[in-house]
Backbone:
């Protein structure tokens, strides 16, 4: 028997868990076992391959060059196993769909379409995770999300991106204030945490206007950003559709910005090597059918 024929591909599950968690404890939590079990399986895999796959750096396990080369093959095998499992299930609408979305998208665009989707697939377990575009892309690449709706443009050779709709970003200000007044004193920028595409555009807009930035405040919710703007704390960039529909939108005023910064496509991103997912394809069809502007 050749050396590669003695290779146990089941050990790659533990390799992937450690690569994603960065520690034996984190991997054990994901695999629902004890760290010693993960360590033993990892040593067994390294013995079979004849190479070290991880090195310890500052309390974390980092991939060695051999581990980096192995990672895409392990991920591909995981996707193939998932596809093999899914293809023999009697009900393609049963199972799990893991979707990510920006907070703004989840609030304005998704409620109606997810309700329609649930009526078609009532037995499907759907999980929706919100976060910044940067965080969501990392989750898709790691295989923890099947797809994510992010702010674009964005290109990655490992991912397939499809524009779903286009948002118009507007400047959100305290009621009664205009953008012309912002150059008179230091300005506080209000936005989602780093990794948010809209936050990056707010930074670019303020640089273009040569504003003096007094502070940058990060919030994890739409209500907090609109509430801070309404209280006179600062300014932010949000989709016009959100500001017009959100209850707190009446407490602020908004102004258009330059077209190149205002035009913000929303992209649905998924891995190119991901197996076919019937439920995801149907959800994408429903997303494509959404009107350009959400209804009030």
Residues:
């Amino acid at each position: 028997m050749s050396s590669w024929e003695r290779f146990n591909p089941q050990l790659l599950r533990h390799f992937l868990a450690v690569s994603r968690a960065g520690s034996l404890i984190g991997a054990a939590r994901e695999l629902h076992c004890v760290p010693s079990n993960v360590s033993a399986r990892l040593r067994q895999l390294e013995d079979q391959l004849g190479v070290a796959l991880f090195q310890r750096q500052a309390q974390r396990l980092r991939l060695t060059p051999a581990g980096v080369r192995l990672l895409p093959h392990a991920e591909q095998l995981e996707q193939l196993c998932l596809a093999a499992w899914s293809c023999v299930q009697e009900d393609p609408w049963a199972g799990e769909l893991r979707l990510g979305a920006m907070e703004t998208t989840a609030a304005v665009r998704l409620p109606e379409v997810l309700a329609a989707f649930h009526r078609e697939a009532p037995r499907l377990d759907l999980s929706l995770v919100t976060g910044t575009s940067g965080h969501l892309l990392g989750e898709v690449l790691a295989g923890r999300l099947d797809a994510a709706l992010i702010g674009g443009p964005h290109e990655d050779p490992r991912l397939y991106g499809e524009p779903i709709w286009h948002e118009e970003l507007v400047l959100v200000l305290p009621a009664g204030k205009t953008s012309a007044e912002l150059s008179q004193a230091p300005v506080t920028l209000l936005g989602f945490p780093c990794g948010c595409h809209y936050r990056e555009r707010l930074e670019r807009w303020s640089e273009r206007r040569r504003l003096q930035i007094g502070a940058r405040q990060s919030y994890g919710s739409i209500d907090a950003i609109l509430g801070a703007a309404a209280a006179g704390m600062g300014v932010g960039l949000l989709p016009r559709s959100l500001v017009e529909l959100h209850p707190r939108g009446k407490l602020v005023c908004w102004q258009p910005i330059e077209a190149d910064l205002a035009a913000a496509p929303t992209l649905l991103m998924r891995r190119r090597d991901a197996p076919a997912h019937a439920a995801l394809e149907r959800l994408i069809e429903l997303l494509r059918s959404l009107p350009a502007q959400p209804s009030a």
In short: The radius of gyration is 23 Å. The chain has a mean pLDDT of 89.
